[in-house]
Amino acid sequence: MIVVTGATGNVGRPLVQALTDAGEQVIAVSRTNTVPGVRQHHADLRQPETLRPALDGASALFLLAGPEVELTEVVETALDAGIRRIVLLSSQGVLTGRHPAAAETAVTAVSPEWTLLRPGGFHSNTFAWAETIRTRRVAAAPFADIALPTVDPADIAEVAAAALTRPGHHGQAYVLTGPEPITPRQQAAALADALGEPVAFQEQTRAEARAQMLGYMPEPVVEATLDILGTPLPAEQEVSADIERVLGRPPRGFAGWAARNFTAFK
Predict the structure, then answer these.
(1) By the 8 A CB rule, do 86 and 113 touch?
(2) Strand runs (DSSP E) across the chain, as ranges?
(3) Is the per-residue pLDDT at 34 higher than 90?
(4) CA 236 to CA 82: how far, in whole Å?
């Protein structure tokens, strides 16, 4: 039995699908929403005791938690329930010093078997443009021509599924990127190609982007994210080979993601 937290998100949903397709029994954990076709459990990781009933009989846990969650307590709850393998969705920013390492330490210090996934930016972050593209055919973002190798959440999910179900991943920390760096302006152009209609691009100032992002992200995360987008370190612009190493195929590019998800922008 495998427990998947954040099961309705951009990574959790395809992970649940990948695991069930492979014949695994899955418990999908989320705060409120549900994933059809699998056993459901509603929990809030800010209250670790709410997760405890989902862990009975499980051997592995995919752990996705926001910065407001005290992961040490969540991990202790999992270990007390008999969980041996934990796969943590972390961030490349931990490796580059942009984000704190406390979440990773909470897992690696005590879990008998652990794997860390360190993605950079997601292709799906462009869902933030969905409303303005649908209504005005406009995408707005800062740092229009700075390229980063964003990653397909479906690739993250497939790597997570491998780490949860196959041997050989204990003690590994995988950096997950797409196949090449891409700029926000190029992402907007790829969405235009997928839609078959022009999409205008408007470059925001850092201050404009910051004000918008503060509506749904904590201030330290906003500042770190803008630093990565605007002044990326060389390591943050490098393409990692880890997805191909784990899955035996190259990572999926942004154009393919846009072609699969264009209806959200239509």
Answers:
(1) yes
(2) 2-4, 26-30, 39-42, 60-63, 85-89, 113-119, 138-142, 172-176, 200-204
(3) no
(4) 36
Amino acid 35: pLDDT: 79
SS3 174: strand
Structure tokens at 228: 């990565």
Encoded amino acid at 102, one letter: A
Span 88-113, mean pLDDT? 95
State pLDDT tens for residues 113-142.
999 999 999 999 999 999 999 999 999 999
SS3 195: helix
Distance CA 150, CA 180 (A): 8
Cβ 50 vs Cβ 32: under 8 Å = no
Q: List the one residue out of 234, 97, 242, 255 whose CA is nearest residue 155.
A: 242
Please state, in angstroms and rounded to a whole number, the distance separating the CA atoms of residues 217 and 210: 10
State how far the Cα of 88 lies from the Cα of 169, in Å rounded to an integer. 12
Query: What DSSP assignment string belongs to 75-133?
Result: HHHHHHTT--EEEEE--HHHHTTSS-SHHHHHHHTT-SEEEEEEE-SBGGGGGGGHHHH
User: CB–CB of 172/246 below 8 Å?
Assistant: no
Contact 224, 90 (CB under 8 A): no
pTM above 0.70, yes or no: yes
Surface-to-core class of residue 167, CB atoms within 10 Å of its CB (0-12 exposed, 13-18 middle, 19+ buried): exposed
Look at residue 99 in the predicted model and tell me its pLDDT. Answer: 87
With 0-12 CB in 10 A as exposed, 13-18 as middle and 19+ as buried, what is 2? buried
Burial class (CB within 10 angstroms; exposed 0-12, middle 13-18, buried 19+) of 6 = buried
